Amino acid sequence: MDYVNAFWVGGLICLLVQILMEKTKLMPGRIMVLLVVTGAVISAFGLYAPFQEYAGAGASVPLLGFGNVLMKGVKEAVNEQGLLGVFTGGLKAGAAGTSAALIFGYLASFFFKPKMRQ
After folding, report:
1. In whole angstroms, what is the distance from residue 48 CA to residue 20 CA?
2. pTM for this model (two decimals)
3. Residues 94, 70: contact at Cβ < 8 Å?
4. What is the pLDDT of residues 29-76, one digit of tens each?
5. Within-domain flag for 99
6. Would 41 be classed as within a structural domain?
7. CA gyration radius, the chain
8. Which of 1, 39, 87, 117 places its Cα 20 to 30 Å from the Cα of 69?
9. Which residue range(s) make up the domain with 48?
10. In the chain, how many domains are there?
């Protein structure tokens, strides 16, 4: 059942994003920011943990999950460092994922030749 729940929840998130892209004039970058902020807000209210428990990778892999990671990092850093944690917590929590994306993107650039869109 874990795979089924991850599949339909992740698919529903993708469906909602596709509807946003087709029916509104929002640019993809703004939709991405909307997803990250939504994940952070859901996490701030304490609702993301049960959602992720139910949906598994369907909730943790999309950009909603990145917002959750940032918010968890901020919460932990605020508990440890106080107000300074607001500025450092998200960066510290998201550093591994962001670094991996940059490194693997750089390595992929050696194997694939980018082409400009016409």
Report:
1. 22
2. 0.77
3. yes
4. 999 999 999 999 999 999 999 999 998 888 888 888 889 898 999 999
5. yes
6. yes
7. 17
8. 1
9. 2-109
10. 1
Please give the pLDDT value at position 41: 94
Does a structural domain hold residue 114?
Answer: no
Token pair belonging to 107: 């390595």
Give mean pLDDT, residues 86-110.
89
Query: Scanning the structure block, which residue is given the tokens 């750089």?
Result: 106
Does residue 116 lie within any of the structural domains? no
Q: Indicate the residue type of 18.
A: Q
| Residue 99, CA distances (Å) to 12, 84, 94, 102, 103 in order | 28, 23, 8, 5, 6
**Burial track 77-109 (b if 16+ CB lie within 10 A, e otherwise):** bbeeeeeebeeebbeebbeeeeeeeeeeeeeee
